[in-house]
Structure formats: C-alpha cells, structure tokens
Write a structure and sequence with these properties.
Layout lengths: L4 H51 L8 H15 L2 E6 L4 E4 L14 H7 L4 E6 L6 E11 L2 E10 L2 H51 L14 H36 L3 E5 L5 E4 L1 H7 L11 H5 L2 H13 L3 E7 L5 E12 L2 E11 L1 H38 L4 H31 L7 E5 H9 L3 H6 L3 E5 L6 E5 H17 L6 E8 L3 E8 L21 H7 L5 H11 L3 E7 L3 E9 L2
Parallel strand pairs: 12-14
Antiparallel strand pairs: 1-2, 1-5, 3-4, 4-5, 6-7, 6-10, 8-9, 9-10, 11-13, 14-15, 15-17, 16-17
Helix pairs in contact: 1-4, 4-5, 9-10, 10-15, 11-13, 13-15
Length: 586
C-alpha cells in the first residue's frame, strides 16, 4: 500500500509542507533571537555607560566593603551582574561571585577592548553558570585615563522563553497543518491518480489480451491526453492484431493446403514448422515433431547435407534427390536461408514431389531415342534412293530436281535425328564424365578445323583473343569440343559474307570464361530468354537454309550445366550477339 504512487506522492507533499513549516519556525526563532539580542544590547550599553558615569569620579582606593556595596547597588538598579575590574585586569568587585576565587580578567576580549577605551559587547557561554550570557564592558575614565572597567553580564532569558513559546506554537501548528495538508493532498492526489489507476487496470487487461476496455476520462490536462492516447493505442492495437490474425489465418490456410511441402528449420536444426504436405512426402506421422532435430524427423541424409550447406554458405540451393525410405520418391528441394540484421534466423525448405514428372520425362526421352533410332533406317534409305534417282534421271530435269529436293530434305532429317539422339545421350549421361585436364585453347583450335571450308566460302575472319599462357581446365574433351563446334556453327550461320567472328578466352581464378561473338543480325531482347530451348529459332528461314536443327544451343546448355558451368548471351539488334559460358577449372 505504502509503495503505491499515490502514497508516495502524498508523503512527498506532507514532507514538503512540514519542512516548510519547520523551516519557517526556525527562521522565526532566529529572527526573534537576533532582535531580542539587539534590544538587550542597546539597553545594556545605555546602562553600562550610565554606570561608568557614576564611577568615573569614584576613587577605586575606597575600602572593599564600599566597593562591594556600590557594585551590588548598581547591579540592583540595572538588573544584571556587575563586575568591576582594575586597569591591571584584577577583579575589584562582583555582584554575584567572591572575587577571591576569580582569576584575572585582562584576557577576556571585552575587558581587553574596554582597557583600550572602547565599549564593546561579547556573547558567549559563562564558564561558571554554563549559560548563554551577553557581556557589555565599558571603560571607567578619569582625566581621560582608563581607571578601570565596569562589565555588565545579563543572560538572555527572555529569548529562551520566547523560543520555548515559539516551539510550542510550531508544534501545535504542525499537527493541524499536517492533517490539513494530508486532507488537501489526498483530495488533489486522488483527482490526479484516479485516472492513473484506471489506466493501470486497462493496461493489465490489454496485457492479458482484452483490447476492448477503455479508460473513462473527462479532463483536458496531461492525464486526459495520456488517457486519450492509451485508448487510441488500444484501438489501433486491436485493429492491427485483428489484421495480423486474419493474415495469419490466411497464411496458415495456404500453408496447410499448398501442394508444396514446407519445412521451417531453426538455427539449431530443430523443426519449427512442417505442413501436412511435407509430412506426407517425408512419411512423418501426426505425432508432435516441433522442436525435434531435422534429421530425426526427415531421416534423409541428403536433405540434412543440403540444410547444413545453406547454413554454412548462407546461399540458397536447389537440389533433386531420391527419398529411398518413402517409396523411392524423387523430390526437388529449394532451400533458402532466412536472415535479418541479427543474423541467421532459420532455413526454409520447400519440397516438391516430381516423381511423376521424372517418370514422364524418362518416357519422353525413351520415346525420342527410340523414334530417332527407328527413323535413321528409312531416312538413310530415302536419301540413298533419292541420290540414285538423281544419277539415273539426268535427262528428265523435273524428276532430277524433285530427287535433289528429296535428297536434301532427307539429309536435313538425318541431321535432326542425329541431334535428337545426341541431346538424348547428353540428358541421360551420368554426372561422372570422362574428365581430363587439357588446354582450352587446343580444344577451340580443334573445333575451328572443321569449319575451314565454310569460313573460306563466306570469307569470314576469325579473331582469337587468347592469353599467352595455357588455360587448363578439367572437363570432358569431346563434350566441350562439341560445345565450341555448335557455338562456332551458330556464329557462321548468322554472319554475312566478310564478317568478323571473335573468340575470346579469359583465364580467371576459379573458372574459364569463353565468348563467341558474331556481328550478324542480333537477337531481339524478348527472345533471348527462349534461345536455349529445343527447336527454337530466331530466323527460321535462315536456319532452314543453313541446315540447322534448332537443337545446337540446347545441347550447349545441357553440356555446360552438367559440367557445373553457366551459359548465357548478350545481343543487340543490328550489331550481333555474344554467346559466353563459364567452365570450372576443377
């Protein structure tokens, strides 16, 4: 109770009021003490001067009894203690003490100053009575000579009586003043802290989740402003929490019903969230798995390796692998780190079941391969028969022309079938390629040898920009040679007579960059994203005339990606195109 803000404020007010009353009483006591002392001093100065006038013609050589009588008479007249001191400081008479027991007074400051002819006042504690006493000493003059000193001593008992009375007045004033101050303070504080108590209750209700309560107020001061602000805050919090709850509900609905498996893994590899689709894909039951380690839930070493790699490198990866423990499912996982300014907060794992897609892809590849094999024999027969007809029908020009067309188209179909078979082989090759270390410059030179005749026919110039040192790479020689053949062939097909073809090799720290640039018609920007698709052609008439199959760049893309590299292009209409790829050195 006493620790509440209300009582602390009440006690503070009471303490301040009482301190002010006590301070006023002390200042009043001091003021009256000084005022009384000044009045007493003036009275004593007048009386001691009068006594000095009486004694100035008095012979200090009178008998002691006469001196004592005179001293007592003066003391009775002026109402104080009178002491007569000779010029040597010896006490000659005292109205209250036996002079035989009194020491020499020459050392007392008031006596010392009076012997010098000065009337002065000193206030100190009397060594005998141990009471506060005021001393006034004046010289007794005779023929302008100090004959002795008369000292008047009066205890300021009036001040003490006044102080005592003032203390009683203060005491009897403080009690009712304190009670009155308490009543006024409580009334004022209740008015001030009442809304604070209401706000405290509302704040507690808000902390417990009740955002409908409001503070009732009817004030325009700071307390009213605070209450209004709290009500506004509660309303906005209610709106925001409602909005967040709705968004959370929609998100949970999406996550619960999405066809993608979603897993959220914490920084310590514990499962923070897993949706039903992921449970089904991974064969996880309905039992509580939140908080368990990811490897304990998924029981997939491949997935654990991917999660560890993302945690280590802080880079997203996409990986395909087979879940052998759950019916040989082929899944594609996208694993993304979740980071903020505080660091890694978790790992998001998105799992897609692509088993059916893989099965269909295998069927497609087998179909393409089988059809291509089946087409080779009849195409070979067609081209053979067409060639025979061209030789046997030399007299019939129309028949010879039709035979030539059949022969050319058969050859084009043969090239197309061969490209399909090659693409099928590349797509199905094992990642363990026939790797060997070789100089990339030698591979490019070997590829260029195949195009000597075509380059000469179109009067094309090939400019090679190679570094002086060797450019070693570890790759499959035949596959990389095929990449260069396809890129050079593409550059020749899209170059006009007399154009320049540039082949650039850059030896970098981790990989090798190879660029093949032609100065042909260029490729529109909207078509660059599809240029590596199967059978896609920018200029179909040109490709058909050049005998292209539309699979060359697709083969390039697959070979480079199998080697862990990257292929892309830069192109501008009317200026030409640059196809480039990177190849890891190891």
């Amino acid at each position: 109770m006493i620790n509440t803000f209300k009582w602390k404020l009440t006690l503070s007010y009471m303490t301040l009021i009482l301190l002010f009353i006590l301070l006023g009483g002390l200042l009043g006591i001091r003021y009256f003490d000084e005022l009384y002392a000044q009045n007493l001093n003036r009275s004593m100065l007048a009386e001691v001067k009068l006594a000095g006038e009486i004694l100035k013609d008095y012979d200090f050589a009178h008998p002691q009894t006469e001196i004592d009588a005179l001293t007592e008479q003066i003391a009775g007249d002026i109402g104080g203690r009178v002491t007569l001191v000779a010029s040597d400081g010896a006490v000659m008479a005292d109205s209250q003490e036996n002079i035989g027991q009194m020491a020499n007074h020459k050392s007392f400051p008031e006596i010392r100053e009076a012997l010098r002819g000065e009337t002065n006042t000193v206030r100190r504690v009397d060594p005998v009575s141990e009471a506060d006493t005021m001393y006034v000493a004046a010289p007794v003059m005779s023929d302008d000579q100090v004959q002795g000193v008369i000292r008047l001593a009066v205890p300021p008992t009036g001040v003490k009586n006044l102080v005592n009375q003032l203390w009683w007045v203060i005491l009897f004033t403080v009690i009712p003043a304190g009670v009155l101050a308490l009543m006024v303070s409580l009334k004022f504080i209740n008015r001030m802290t009442g809304p604070l108590s209401d706000m405290t209750q509302v704040a507690r209700s808000m902390a417990e989740g009740d955002l409908k309560r409001r503070v009732l107020y009817n004030r325009d001061d700071e307390i009213g402003i605070l209450a209004s602000a709290m009500n506004t805050m509660a309303s906005r919090l209610d709106e925001k929490i409602t909005e967040i709850s709705e968004v959370k509900g929609r998100l949970e609905t999406v996550l619960e019903n999405t066809v993608n498996g979603i897993i959220l893994v914490g920084p310590n590899e514990q499962i923070l969230f897993i949706n039903p689709t992921a449970r089904i894909l991974l064969g996880v039951g309905e039992k509580d798995v939140i908080g368990k380690r990811q490897i304990e839930v998924t029981r997939s070493y491949a997935l654990t390796q991917c999660v560890d790699q993302v945690m280590r490198d802080r880079k997203p990866i996409r990986q395909e692998f087979v879940l052998h423990n759950f019916g040989e499912k082929v899944v594609q996982t996208t694993i993304v780190p979740i980071e903020d300014e505080l660091g890694l907060q978790g790992i998001l794992v998105v799992v897609n079941d692509i088993t059916e897609l893989k099965r269909l892809e295998t069927i497609r590849k087998d179909f393409v391969a089988n059809v291509s094999h089946e087409l080779k024999t009849p195409i070979t027969a067609i081209s053979g028969f067409a060639e025979t007809l061209m030789e046997e029908t030399t007299e019939n020009q129309t028949c010879q022309e039709f035979s030539r067309i059949i022969f050319d188209e058969a050859l084009r179909l043969a090239r197309l079938v061969e490209s399909l078979l090659e693409l099928s082989r590349i797509e199905s090759i094992d990642p363990n390629l026939e790797l060997e270390e070789f100089d990339m410059k030698d591979c490019i030179a070997k590829a260029l040898e195949r195009f000597d005749l075509q380059l000469a026919e179109k009067k094309l110039i090939v400019e090679s920009k190679f570094p002086d040192e060797s450019v070693p790479v570890t790759a499959d020689w035949d596959r990389i040679t095929q990449v260069m053949i396809n890129l050079i062939d593409n550059a020749i097909n899209y170059s006009e007579e007399g154009d320049l073809i540039e082949i650039t090799v850059e030896n970098r720290d981790e990989d090798v960059l190879v660029e093949v640039t032609d100065h042909g018609i260029g490729i529109p920007q909207q078509e660059t994203t599809r240029i590596f698709e199967r059978f896609y052609r920018v200029d179909k008439a040109r490709c058909r005339k050049g005998g292209g199959s539309g699979l060359g760049l697709s083969i390039v893309k697959h070979i480079i990606e199998v080697h862990g590299g990257h292929v892309d292009l830069r192109s501008q209409i009317g200026e030409g195109s640059t196809f480039f790829f990177t190849l890891p050195k190891k």
